[in-house]
Amino acid sequence: MVRQEMYNRYGESAYEDGYRIYTTITRKVQQAAQQAVRNNVLDYDMRHGYRGPANVLWKVGESAWDNNKITDTLKALPTYGPLLPAAVTSANPQQATAMLADGSTVALSMEGVRWARPYRSDTQQGPTPRKVTDVLQTGQQSGFVRLAMHGGWHKCRK
Question: Taking every annotated instance into account, which residue ranges of this chain make up the domain Penicillin-binding protein OB-like (predicted)?
Fold first, then answer.
């Protein structure tokens, strides 16, 4: 925040003119505050339901993209802290597999998508999904996935 304010006030000279800035907040406290905001925004978003895929890369029945095309597309997308862009490469009622920008894959189980009731409005969500394919389909660029606290992957939205 301080760096952004300096840049807003002084432009590029904020980096080049040797300014020394002293604040009363430590790096550790600032990082904890940023993590708390990030977690609360994600929790809020998840409480209000799943808004659908960010994009459909290929439709069911069409030829799937090759791994290079998938990873090139994902590499062009931003990451946000623990959130990683992913593309669903296979899905069945029990599990989906998503590819990350580095070419690795993660398994998304029913436990990881159970929260993803369809978004209807700020106060209403649709029914709880009964199977993974109620939420995820092959070919979706599925927003973002994040590593959950217990070590599994969860589907999230940005």
Answer: 50-141
